[in-house]
Amino acid sequence: MSQPKSTCPNCGAPIEFQFSSAVQTTCPYCQSILVRHDVDLKKVGQVADLPPEVSPIQLLTEGIYGNKAFRVVGRIIYQYEQGYWNEWHCVTNTGESLWLSDAMAEYAVTRMVKPQTALPPQEQVRPGQRFSWQGVTYELTSVNRAHYLGVQGELPFEYWDKRDLIFADLKTEGVKFGTIDYSEEPPLLFLGEHVEFDTLRLKNLRELEGW
Amino acid sequence: MSSAPKPNVKSLSCPNCGGSVQVRGMGRAATVVCIQCLSVLDATSPSLTVLQTFKAAERYQPLIPLGTRGKMRGDPYEVIGFQVRELMADGVPYSWSEYLLFNPFKGFRYLSEYNGHWNDITTIKSVPMNTQEGGRAAKQHLATKYVHFQHYDATTIYVMGEFPWQVRVGEKAVCDDYIAPPYILSSEASDNEVNWSIGEYTAPETIWKNFGLKTTPPSPVGVFANQPSQQKGEVAKSWGRWLFWTTALFVLQLFWSVFDSNRKVFQETYTFVQNKAGTQAEHSFVTPVFELPGRTSSVKVDLATDLNNNGAFFNLALINTENGKAFDFSRQVGYYSGRDSDGSWTEGKQKDSVVLPSIEPGKYYLRVEPEGDPSETNASVPVKYQITVKRDVPTWGYFWIGAILLLIPPIWTSIRSGSFESKRWAESDYGGGSSGSSSSDED
C-alpha cells in the first residue's frame, strides 16, 4: 500500500500517513495539529501539553482483534472525573478504523456505526432508555461529561477544537456496549465490546519501568 | 522489562504536613492519602491539592502492606490502596477491609477481608439480569444464578494509599450482595453509577502464599456469605455411599438366606388341658435332647396350636445339656372368631414363632410350660400344639441393624450441611437473626 507523503506546513518535517483515509494528524516534531484538505496539510492548532502517560499502549502498538491485525495510528485523550481515558485510533490490515479504549486499564474495542434511526438529541437522553441496534438491546445507563485534553497522530475525522463533551453510555447484558458522542451534530454512535487485555495480543507496548 | 522488576514508586511531599507520600499507580491514581496527617490528596494535580483531611478512630494496618507484590491468576499485582468500610445492622457497625491491586497492563482487582474471610474481586462490565430463585430476588450473570443475600449501605471509614477514582472518608454507597458459593456478585450504587463486581471466596493461605507473606493470616470466624460448604458435595456423596452399602448388605443378606440350611432338628406334638380354676397343677415338661449342628447361628422355634376362641401362654427355655446355659422365652397365643352386625371377624393367630439369633452348636432340650387362662370360656377344651425347632434360619435382624447404622453418616452430614447453610443465611437479610441489615434499609 503506497502511503501519501507530505510535509508539515509549520516546520517542514516529513509527514507520513499510516492510514490513507486520515483526515487529521499531528506533526511528531513540532506538535502542530494538521488537517488534510485535498493534498495539502493545514495547521489548525497546536497540541497542548499532554498529561503523563498512563496507558501501556502507544502509537504503532500492534494487535489482533477479530482475526484482523491492527496498528495504532492516533488517539484522542479525554479527562473525566475518574482520571484520563484514551481512545486509540487503530487501522486494520483491511483499512478499517477501530477504536481501542483504555479507561483505568479496562479495554474495549468499538467501531463507529451509522444508526438506522436518528439518535435522540442530547437534551432528551435519559438513563433507562432502550435502543436496539444490530439485534442487540442497549440500555442507556448514564450521561457523562468529559473534558477534551488533546490528540496525537492520525484520526479519521477532524477533532481538535473541542472543550467539554457529553457522552451517553449504553450497556447490555453481555460484554457489548455503546457510546453516543454528542460532540458532533448529528451525534456519533460507537458500538463495541469490552475485551480482555490478553486477547488483543498486543506488541510494541510502551515499556513500563518496574514491570 | 528487566528480569527482576522492582516496584516503581514516586515520592512526593504532602502539601498539608510535608510528610512523604508515595505514588505507585503510574499515573492511574486519582487520589492518594498522606498517612501522616490523614489527608486525601488529588493525585492528578502536580502539587497534590488537599481534597479532604479526615479523622479516624483507629489507625488500621493492612494485613498485606502497601507496595507488596504478589501473583493473582498468573499475573503480578501490587497492593496500592487500602480502605476500611462499614455497614450498620440493627445499630451495630460491621467493618471490612478492601485492598486495591494494580498491574499497569491488566488493570485493577481487589481483595476483601472480613473476619478472616477473603474474596478475590474483579469488576464486570455487563448488567446482570433480574430473575428469581425460590421466591427470592436473584440475578443471572452468564450461566450462573446468584441469590440475593443482603442489602446495605457501605460507608468508607479509613483510606490508605491510592485509588483510581475519587475516594473520601464518609462516602456512602448502596450495595446489594447476591451469592452462588464460592462466588459473590455485588452491586454498588453511587450518585449516577451502578458498578458490578464478582468475588471468588479464596483461602487466606492462598493469598499469603501468592504475596509471600511471612505473617499468619487470621483464622476465619463463622461462615461467610459465599463460603463454599465443605459438606455440600459430601451430602450427595454420603447418600451415594449409603445406597451402595445398603444394597451390598441387602444382596449379601439374600445370599445368606439362600444358603442358610433352615434344617428341622426337632418336632413333636403335645396336648394339654387347663385345670379348673384354683388348682395349681403344672404342665411343665422337658423334650427329648436334640442336636443343634454347625456353627453358632440362629434357632427358630415354631408353635402351632389348634386354639379356637381360646388363648394360652407358653413359657419356653432352650437349655444346653453340656453347660446348662438356658435361653428363656415365652409366647402368648390366642385365636378368636365370631360373627356380629358387621359380619364375621377373627382376632389373633393360632401360630407363633421365636427366633433366637445366635446359639452355639451342641446338645439341647426344651423345657415347655403351657398355661391356659382359666377365665377363657373354652379354658377346659384340650389344646393340641406342635413344637418345631429349626436350625440356621435366615434372620433379617442384623440386616436391619446394619441398614440403620449405615444411615448415621449421611444423616449426620446432612445435618451438618444444613447447619452450615443456616449459619450462612443467619447473616443475610433472610436470617431472622440479630445480624444482617434490617428491613428498614430497604426502602
Secondary structure elements and their pairing?
The complex is a heterodimer of chains A (211) and B (443).
Chain A: E1 5-7, E2 14-16, E3 24-26, E4 32-37, E5 40-46, E6 62-65, E7 68-80, E8 83-92, E9 97-103, E10 106-113, E11 130-133, E12 136-153, E13 164-171, E14 176-181, E15 188-195
Antiparallel strand pairs in A: 1-2, 3-4, 4-5, 6-7, 7-8, 7-12, 8-9, 9-10, 10-15, 11-12, 12-13, 13-14, 14-15
Chain B: E1 10-13, E2 20-23, E3 31-34, E4 39-42, E5 50-53, E6 69-72, E7 75-89, E8 92-103, E9 107-114, E10 117-124, E11 129-133, E12 136-141, E13 144-163, E14 172-180, E15 183-189, E16 194-202, H1 204-210, H2 230-259, E17 263-272, E18 285-286, E19 290-292, E20 297-305, E21 310-320, E22 326-340, E23 343-349, E24 351-359, E25 362-372, E26 383-391, H3 397-426
Antiparallel strand pairs in B: 1-2, 3-4, 3-13, 4-5, 6-7, 7-8, 7-13, 8-9, 9-10, 10-16, 11-12, 12-13, 13-14, 14-15, 15-16, 17-26, 18-25, 19-25, 20-24, 20-26, 21-22, 21-25, 22-23
Low-confidence stretches of chain B: 433-443
Work out the helix count of chain A: 0
Residue fraction in strands of chain B: over 45%
Q: Total number of β-strand segments of chain A?
A: 15
Distance between the termini of chain A: 36 Å
Give unreliable regions of chain A as ranges: none
> How would the global form of chain A be characterised?
globular
* Class of secondary structure makeup of chain B: alpha+beta
Query: How many helices of chain B?
Result: 3
Helix proportion range of chain B: 10-25%
Major sheet: arrangement of strands of chain B: 7-8-9-10-16-15-14-13
Overall pLDDT confidence of chain B: 88
Topology of chain A as a string of helices (H) and strands (E): EEEEEEEEEEEEEEE
Rg for CA atoms of chain B: 40 Å
Strand order of the largest sheet of chain A: 7-8-9-10-15-14-13-12
Question: Please, could you describe this protein's structure?
Answer:
The complex is a heterodimer of chains A (211) and B (443). By secondary structure, chain A is an all-beta fold. Chain A has a domain at 5-46. Helices cover 0% and strands 51% of the residues of chain A. Chain A has strands at 5-7, 14-16, 24-26, 32-37, 40-46, 62-65, 68-80, 83-92, 97-103, 106-113, 130-133, 136-153, 164-171, 176-181, 188-195. Chain A has an 8-stranded antiparallel barrel. A 3-stranded antiparallel sheet of chain A has the order 3-4-5, with no helix packed on it. In chain A, a hairpin with a 2-residue loop joins strand 7 and strand 8 (83-92). The radius of gyration of chain A is 17 Å and the shape is globular. The model of chain A has no long low-confidence stretch (mean pLDDT 89). Chain B is an alpha+beta fold. Chain B has 2 domains: 10-225, no CATH class; 261-393, Sandwich (Jelly Rolls), CATH 2.60.120. Chain B is 15% helix and 47% strand. Chain B is built from 3 helices and 26 strands. Chain B has helices at 204-210, 230-259, 397-426, and strands at 10-13, 20-23, 31-34, 39-42, 50-53, 69-72, 75-89, 92-103, 107-114, 117-124, 129-133, 136-141, 144-163, 172-180, 183-189, 194-202, 263-272, 285-286, 290-292, 297-305, 310-320, 326-340, 343-349, 351-359, 362-372, 383-391. In chain B, the strands form 4 sheets. In chain B, strands 7-8-9-10-16-15-14-13 form an 8-stranded antiparallel barrel. In chain B, strands 18, 19, 21, 22, 23 and 25 form a 6-stranded antiparallel sheet that branches. In chain B, helix 2 (230-259) runs antiparallel to helix 3. Chain B is rod-shaped and about 120 Å long. Classes of the chains: A mainly beta (211), B alpha+beta (443). Chain A binds chain B through residues 51-54, 56, 81-84, 104-106, 108, 127, 139, 141-142, 144, 171-175, 177, 194, 197, 205, 207-211, and chain B through 1, 5-8, 26-30, 44, 76, 103-108, 123, 125-129, 164-166, 192-194.
